[in-house]
Amino acid sequence: MHHYQNILLAIDFSDYGHYVAHRASSFAEKFNAHLHIIHVLDNIPMPDTPYGTVIPLDEDSSDDLLESEKNKLTKISDQLDIAPTRRWMIWGEPQQEITQLAARKQIDLIIVGSHERHGLALLMGSTAKEVLYHAGCDVLAIHLKDH
Ligand code: AMP
Questions:
Q1: Residue 22, domain member (yes or no)
Q2: C-alpha dist (Å) from residue 122 to 10, 79, 92, 116, 141
Q3: Most buried residue, 28, 85, 114, 132, by CB count within 10 Å?
Q4: Residue 112 maps to which CATH number?
């Protein structure tokens, strides 16, 4: 079996985030791989900041929303014992930043969550699908049931 060395967990802080994180952590342990984590900031206005900008986690900012997002990433990274140098918060579009970081960091497996989609949601693109389409490495979609 192929042994993954660098696994990237993409986390969105939804209710399912912890489940996806837990599964990613088990995979990393199984393969004795380095676990990296990314949260793409796409929900806070960041005027004058170009997509792809890495947001430092160890610098205080005056924006409460941003601080709260950083704290969430720090907390889950601490829980999973992810080294500070493997934690990434990047401003931009999730699928783009996830696949670009994966290419830059020689990631060989990206782990995302994938929801069951019904009705109108079927018409909208899913992050998992976009990541799979654009990634240059393997992608594991953790199936998330809506209950
Ligand atoms: P979605 O299809 O957008 O509901 O997202 C499915 C999965 O994509 C989530 O479980 C995450 O693994 C990943 N994802 C979505 N949004 C983000 C984000 N802003 N940053 C990092 N990963 C994300």
A1: yes
A2: 21, 33, 23, 9, 17
A3: 28
A4: 3.40.50.620
Q: How far is CA 6 from CA 13, 31, 69, 126, in A?
A: 22, 9, 24, 24
Number of domains present in the structure of the chain: 1
For ligand 1, whether the C-beta of 40 sits within 6 Å is yes
Does this model's pTM top 0.90? My answer is yes
38 Cβ inside 6 Å of ligand 1? yes
Best residue among 11, 12, 69 to mutate for probing ligand 1's pocket (most ligand atoms within 8 Å of CB) is 12
When pLDDT is averaged across residues 33-47 and rounded to a whole number, the result is 94
Q: Is residue 40 within a helix (H) or strand (E), and if so which, with residue range?
A: strand 34-41
| Contact indicator for 9, 20 with CB cutoff of 8 Å | yes
Residue 114 sits in which domain range? 6-144
Residue 1, domain member (yes or no): no
Residue with tokens 């909208």: 124
Q: Give the residue, by CA position, lying nearest to ligand 1 atom 19.
A: 40
| Range of lowest pLDDT (38-47, 74-83, 88-97, 110-119) | 110-119
| Residue 64 host element (H or E) | helix 64-79
Indicate whether 125 belongs to any domain.
yes
